């Protein structure tokens, strides 16, 4: 996702790139209970993490069991109010998710990979409905790319589709908004929206009534 050549707010340029995968998990009653999230960090950020945590001194791109244990949970200690860069919407309502559960971490071919579970509050029934899942940083400091597997577990009757963002269209809208402002205008005071969600792949899961 390349934004450097476009005149947009400075914080709209991503600094960390994360390949992302999702597992949408249903219980034996067909209710949505959890979403498992996989984050695979880019090479440069993985290198920074390895240096910070003193990992992989032999530079073979893999971790020992001790290093793996040391790294696990490094990205699961969230500050209050952080939504985990995941939005799950059902019937126009954003569902409440727990903080990260059962975190894991590893290094594969030099890239740090982590997983965690998010429990869905209320375990809603998805009966003839569509649930939308987007992974994004509202400020777009981190760019999440839905390049890893997306799957549904616990139900075999659900289907899902990927809706890719209209990046060119969203950038054009942002440019049009910015052109209406003075160069030193405060974006928040002028209600310029955060743009992360507009650049996110929308995973839509539809399940029939049981």
Protein architecture, described:
By secondary structure, the protein is of the alpha+beta class. The chain has one domain: Acetylcholine Binding Protein, Chain: A (Distorted Sandwich), CATH 2.70.170. The chain is 14% helix and 34% strand. It has three helices and eleven strands, in the order ββααββββββββαβ. It has helices at 43-52, 65-71, 167-178, and strands at 16-26, 32-41, 86-90, 93-94, 101-108, 111-119, 129-135, 142-145, 150-153, 159-163, 202-207. Strands 1, 2, 5, 6, 8 and 9 form a six-stranded mixed sheet that branches. β3 (86-90) and β4 (93-94) form a beta hairpin. The longest helix is centred in the C-terminal third of the chain and has 12 residues, at 167-178. Residues 1-11 have low confidence and may be disordered.
| Domain module count | 1
CATH fold-level topology: Acetylcholine Binding Protein, Chain: A
Top-tier CATH class: Mainly Beta
List SSEs in N-to-C order: EEHHEEEEEEEEHE
Count up the helices: 3
Mean of pLDDT: 85
Overall number of strands: 11
Which stretches of 5+ consecutive residues score pLDDT under 50? 1-11
Structural class: alpha+beta
Protein name: Polyphosphate kinase
InterPro entries: DUF1007
